[in-house]
Amino acid sequence: MRRLVVAMMVAGAAQAAQAADLPDFSALRGPVGISRGVVNWQGFYAGGQVGYGSADMNFAGSNNALIAKALGPNNILQNVVESVSEANGKTTVHQTTFGGFVGYNSQWDDVVLGVEANYMHGNFKGTSSAAPVPLTYVTPFSDNLYHTVGLNSSRSISITDMGTFRARAGYAMGNFLPYVFGGGALGRANISSSVVITDRSAATLADSPSAPLVTYSASDSIGGKMLYGYTAGIGTEAMLFGNVFARAEWEYVRFVNAGGDININTVRGGLGYKF
Questions:
Q1: How would you class 74 by CB atoms within 10 Å of its CB: exposed for 0-12, middle for 13-18, buried for 19 or more?
Q2: Is residue 31 part of a domain?
Q3: Three-class DSSP category at 7
């Protein structure tokens, strides 16, 4: 029995010594926590991009504040003129864009989470105007007079710069990284508006259209107005060689303080480098 135990101990020691002499191949297994065969996306990255987008702009009611300014407080015309201002309609504009991005990824096996700042420059400019035929109202207003009211309203907005700040989540699939993102959006815009309101009033309905003309007007121009809103979208990246990657994505941006409903959709393509 003693001879058997001694023999087993000698054999075990010889096997351990042989294993110690083998080379260490741990460097070929990749970074800790990242699956073999999956690209290491962890770290800082930056790149440039170009895109093409469309902006849907709804100007209905966008000049109501300017109408109130032109008429002054407690004017009996305000409600009817604001209802006419809904005639300012929708427009869609298309524009090419260019810009850049910078961000950071953290990776756990195949799951990649990150944050990114994204910038695009272009000129999404839309204009809407309305000049309906003056309306003669068949019932008297609160002043017991019959009114014929007209409105000439116009509004123009030009969005030149957009920046989004995103959180994103992706799933690494070989050399590809499909992802979704969402966050906040900022923009810079030049906005101009004008309204001209006409009113003719008389004691009888028949005399209202030819009564003396009273005109109210106001205009406003804002350069470099800061817009804010939110963004969401999807994309994919592909590692090409070294740490150079290509990306393609779709982004939706909505601005909520432009004085109208502004929705911008863009598709982009870009190249980046992971440090």
A1: exposed
A2: no
A3: helix
Instruction: Give the pLDDT of residue 261.
Output: 86
Domain membership of residue 15 (yes or no) is no
Number of domains in the chain: 1
Question: Domain range holding 90?
Answer: 55-274
Q: Which position has the higher pLDDT, 37 or 118?
A: 118
Residue for token digits 């460097």?
A: 27
Q: Is 11 helix (H, G, I), strand (E, B) or coil?
A: helix
Residue 72: the pLDDT is 87
User: Alpha-carbon distance 253 to 187, whole Å?
Assistant: 10
Task: Identify residue 191 by its one-letter amino acid code.
Answer: I
Rounded to whole angstroms, how far apart are CA atoms 75 and 216? 11
Q: Which of these ranges, 69-73, 253-257, 262-266, has the smallest mean pLDDT?
A: 69-73
9: Cβ–Cβ under 8 A, 6 or more apart, which residues? none
* Distance in angstroms (rounded) separating the CA atoms of residues 164 and 187: 9
In a domain, 21, yes or no: no
Phi then psi for residue 46, to 5 deg, are -155, 160
Token representation of residue 265: 């959709």
Residue 256 lies in a domain: yes
| C-beta of residue 205 within 8 angstroms of C-beta of residue 177 | no
Taking the C-alpha atoms of residue 179 and residue 173, their distance in angstroms, rounded to an integer, is: 11
Cite the beta strand spans of the chain per DSSP E.
43-58, 90-108, 111-130, 135-136, 146-171, 176-202, 213-241, 244-255, 261-274
CA distance 201 to 148: 6
More confident residue, 239 or 88: 239
3-state secondary structure (DSSP) of residue 78: helix
- Return d(Cα 272, Cα 95) in angstroms, integer: 23
Sequence-separated (6 or more) residues with CB below 8 Å from residue 173? 38, 110
